[in-house]
UniProtKB/TrEMBL annotation:
It comes from Ruminococcus flavefaciens 007c. Transmembrane segments: none annotated. Its EC number is 2.8.4.3. It catalyses: N(6)-dimethylallyladenosine(37) in tRNA + (sulfur carrier)-SH + AH2 + 2 S-adenosyl-L-methionine = 2-methylsulfanyl-N(6)-dimethylallyladenosine(37) in tRNA + (sulfur carrier)-H + 5'-deoxyadenosine + L-methionine + A + S-adenosyl-L-homocysteine + 2 H(+). Belongs to the methylthiotransferase family. MiaB subfamily. Keywords: 4Fe-4S, Cytoplasm, Iron, Iron-sulfur, Metal-binding, S-adenosyl-L-methionine, Transferase, tRNA processing. This is tRNA-2-methylthio-N(6)-dimethylallyladenosine synthase.
Length: 457
């Protein structure tokens, strides 16, 4: 962990009482959002306040995602449009952080084609932000740090987005090298945080009133394997479950190849662990899974699902799916639709395959047209809609415990929240309930949410 105190103090001295507002926007997964919260924590130390309006910012940081080409295109579009901001306010500093910066061709493109960018900050170099910012404030045209230091987690203060839901990364990086995926290339190998650090962070959060703790890792099931004598993920769940307080524990993502019986036992035996499992399958075809390097086949996947349903037939499962992996045949795709119908997911996150340069799938032959991939995506969404419409009916007539999240965007005077099963629940209620657990009697269901009545008392 680098010592950035001198740079922080120099910035405080340099800016004095000058107003400094930062706009920090994170793209991509929750791990990246958590990094964004750490970036904000560092900026707060340097006296920055935050704005949601980029037009009034003195510093803009885009914390980027590289998982699909569309995500990168979006960021390039935004950076392009910020050229005029800089013309209007030459003192504005623009920084690019996150996963895009870890690809050398992207870092070069930013330097070559986007002179409005002052700072490039790599995914493992967040603690270098004060030094880079200091250089930019002193007039440097471009400064970058994409070297690897550490994950900075233990020392980092965070400016959290929510006062009742907190993300807690338990590990960084990924060892799995799925053939389509850029993440291991931009985030490096697995590094687990020490269990005592995680337990004390979660205890602190719970004691300060947080109601939902989301444990994060690209594959939480391999937690601790890189640390000698470390406890396993199911053991970590049990330790966290023992912390006193009224709160829920969620986690993402759980790779099916490592989803053990111990994990399922822990989910069912720990009262605070939510009754929902996000189990990304990616494809319903064992042949495609082999070419994706996923290390399980559909039989193994279904054996996990059957174990869960044998304990609770109403348990909630969600998944990630990729449509149009190179040379995915019509039969392969049909198997994905069959799987959706068999598992009855409550929700799916589906993506059209995006070619990522440097990954093995990028050089695989692909004879499927973009039109066909689009058609398959529409069909998949239609099947999922039918499945969830039917499956959500099981909640009608029940009382669900819900963490009230926000005001409903659909109906005035209503709130929206999530149940332990990760189902969206909409109900009439006062905004003072936001951030609290409430009981809701479910009276109706749709394909994306259930509706109900707040139970009094
Ligand atoms: N580590 C998690 C896992 O293995 O389930 C997933 C992390 S990834 C950030 C989230 C999802 O993005 C993946 O589950 C996959 O469905 C999707 N994804 C990753 N690479 C992709 C690509 N090249 N094209 C389309 N979708 C992709
Ligand atoms: Fe990507 Fe696979 Fe790692 Fe998930 S497990 S981050 S999909 S390489
Ligand atoms: Fe996450 Fe995107 Fe990076 S999904 S790890 S922000 S490539």
């Amino acid at each position: 962990m680098r010592d950035n105190t001198a740079a922080i103090n120099e910035i405080i001295g340099l800016l004095g009482d000058k107003q400094r507002k930062a706009y920090v926007r994170s793209f991509g997964c929750q791990l990246n959002v958590s990094d964004g919260e750490k970036i904000k924590g560092l900026l707060m130390k340097m006296g920055y306040s935050f704005t949601e309006d980029e037009h009034e910012a003195d510093l803009i940081i885009l914390n980027t995602c590289a998982v699909r080409e569309s995500a990168e295109d979006r960021v390039f579009g935004i950076v392009g449009s910020m050229k005029k901001f800089k013309e209007l306010k030459p003192s504005l500093i623009i920084g690019i952080a996150g996963c895009m910066t870890a690809q050398s061709h992207i870092a070069e493109k930013i330097k070559r084609s986007y002179p409005q960018v002052d700072i490039v900050l790599g995914t493992s170099a967040i603690s270098a932000l004060p030094e880079l910012l200091l250089k930019a404030l002193q007039g440097a045209k471009f400064s970058a740090d994409i070297s690897e230091y550490d994950d900075f987690s233990e020392a980092a203060e965070q400016v959290r987005e929510s006062s009742f839901k907190a993300s807690v990364p338990i590990m960084f990086g990924c060892n799995n090298f799925c053939t389509y995926c850029i993440v291991p290339h931009v985030r490096g190998r697995e590094r687990s945080r020490r269990p005592e650090d995680i337990i004390s962070e979660v205890s602190r959060l719970v004691h300060s009133g947080y109601k939902e703790i989301m444990l994060l890792g690209q594959n939480v099931n391999s937690y601790g394997r890189d640390l000698e004598g470390c406890i396993s993920f199911p053991q970590l769940l049990r330790e966290l479950d023992a912390i006193e307080g009224d709160f829920w524990i969620r986690f993402m993502s759980s790779h099916p190849k490592d989803a053990s019986k111990e994990l399922i036992d822990a989910i069912f035996e720990c009262g605070k662990v939510a009754k929902h499992l996000h189990l990304p399958v990616q494809s319903g075809s064992s042949d495609v899974l082999r070419r994706m390097n996923r290390h399980y086949d559909i039989e193994k996947y279904l054996s996990i699902v059957r174990d869960i349903y044998s304990r609770d037939p109403d348990f909630s499962l969600t998944t990630d799916l990729i449509v149009g992996f190179p040379d995915e045949s019509g039969e392969d795709f049909g198997r994905t639709l069959d799987l959706i119908r068999e598992v009855r997911y409550d929700n799916i996150y589906s993506f059209i395959y995006s070619k990522r340069s440097g990954t093995p799938a990028a050089v695989m032959a692909d004879s499927i047209s973009d039109e066909e991939k689009g058609r398959r995506m529409r069909e998949l969404l239609e099947v999922q809609r039918e499945v969830s419409t039917e499956h959500y009916k099981r909640f009608v007539g029940r009382t669900m415990r819900v963490l009230a999240d926000d005001v409903s965007k659909k109906r005035q005077g209503w709130l929206t929240g999530k149940s332990s099963e990760f189902i969206i629940v909409e109900f009439e209620g006062d905004s003072s309930l936001i951030g609290q657990f409430v009981d809701v009697e479910i009276t109706g269901s749709m394909n994306w949410a259930v509706t109900g009545k707040l139970k009094k008392g």
